[in-house]
């Protein structure tokens, strides 16, 4: 139950069922059963001073994909979901009941990542075909296709409301795209190693993001004051000024970085292949 300590084993026994349908649960020696509902149970180990709440799913949507689900997202209003699977499909569905609303077809090979734009009416996807696509959630039409990566796209991010979007790839680059012109605005980073995940966020005022070597395009919208995180296959987590394209920090972890996200304008989280999760302060990552 605790990292670095011997595993503690125990068992749970159901002794009966209340009139409300809530099970009566007893734990073996060393463990204590706390609050129990139809969908959750709290188990604690007083000796180690730890407690965990286990949750059962409220519902399961079994008919959306036939194989492993690789990515999913929920619209800003919570009404729609979009997901991709190793069955080669990308689908939009009702979040309330799992009813399939749209099938998004156009990528060659598997689709690796998908996400809604803030409006909830548009979807961004990236595939093994090295293409980035923008879709209408209303009629499933592909309205924009971006080409430029030389390897499969592994993750995406959206800048503010979505005039600009970002992608990272097995080719080792992260790129900024202009949705209105269907054009690449620049390579934000060329890492020489696959970039498995990215995240974009507003940087703290005290963080020096660097100065652009040339004036940014007037098609760049919302890039000022933003930092881009790069989770790299070569065990490195990198921060880059989105508008400046200048490096902000470089942190070396224990294994390949798979994903990253912002906790705030100063704190970030990143996960590695060997199971570690790093919490870092972007002002001082040493």
From TrEMBL:
UniProt keyword annotations, A-Z: Proteasome, Repeat, WD repeat
Keyword flag ATP-binding: no
Matches recorded under InterPro entries: WD40/YVTN_repeat-like_dom_sf (IPR015943), WD40_repeat_dom_sf (IPR036322), WD40_rpt (IPR001680), WD_repeat_multifunction (IPR051179)
Gene Ontology cellular-component terms listed: proteasome complex
WD repeat ranges per the UniProt record: 65-103, 104-145, 146-178
Bilayer-spanning residue ranges: none
Domain of life of the organism encoding this protein: Eukaryota
Key word Repeat present: yes
Matches recorded under PANTHER family: 26S PROTEASOME REGULATORY SUBUNIT RPN14, MITOCHONDRIAL DIVISION PROTEIN 1-RELATED
Family: Belongs to the WD repeat PAAF1/RPN14 family.
Protein name stated in the entry: Proteasomal ATPase-associated factor 1
């Amino acid at each position: 139950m605790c990292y670095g300590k011997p595993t503690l084993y125990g068992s749970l026994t159901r002794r009966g069922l209340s009139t409300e349908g809530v099970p009566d649960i007893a734990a073996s020696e060393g463990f204590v059963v706390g609050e129990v509902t139809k969908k959750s149970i709290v188990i604690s180990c007083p000796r180690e001073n730890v407690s965990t709440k286990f949750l059962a799913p409220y519902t399961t949507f079994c008919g959306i994909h036939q194989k492993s689900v690789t990515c999913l997202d929920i619209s800003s209003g919570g009404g729609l979901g979009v997901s991709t699977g190793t069955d080669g499909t990308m689908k939009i569905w009702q979040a309330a009941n799992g009813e399939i609303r749209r099938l998004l077809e156009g990528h060659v090979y598997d689709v690796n990542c998908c996400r809604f734009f803030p409006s909830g009416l548009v979807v961004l996807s990236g595939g093994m075909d090295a293409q980035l696509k923008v879709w209408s959630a209303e009629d499933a039409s592909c309205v924009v296709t971006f080409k430029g990566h030389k390897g499969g796209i592994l993750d995406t991010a959206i800048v503010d409301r979505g005039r600009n979007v970002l992608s990272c790839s097995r080719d080792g680059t992260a790129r900024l795209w202009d949705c209105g012109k269907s054009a690449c605005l620049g390579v934000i980073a060329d890492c020489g190693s696959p970039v498995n995940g990215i995240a974009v966020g507003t940087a703290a005022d005290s963080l020096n993001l660097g100065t652009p070597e040339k004036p940014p395009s007037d098609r760049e919208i919302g890039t000022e004051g933003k930092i881009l995180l790069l989770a790299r296959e070569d065990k490195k987590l990198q921060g880059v000024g989105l508008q400046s394209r200048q490096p902000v920090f470089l942190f070396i972890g224990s294994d390949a970085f798979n994903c990253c996200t912002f906790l705030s304008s100063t704190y970030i989280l990143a996960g590695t292949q060997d199971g570690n999760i790093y919490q870092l302060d972007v002002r001082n990552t040493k």
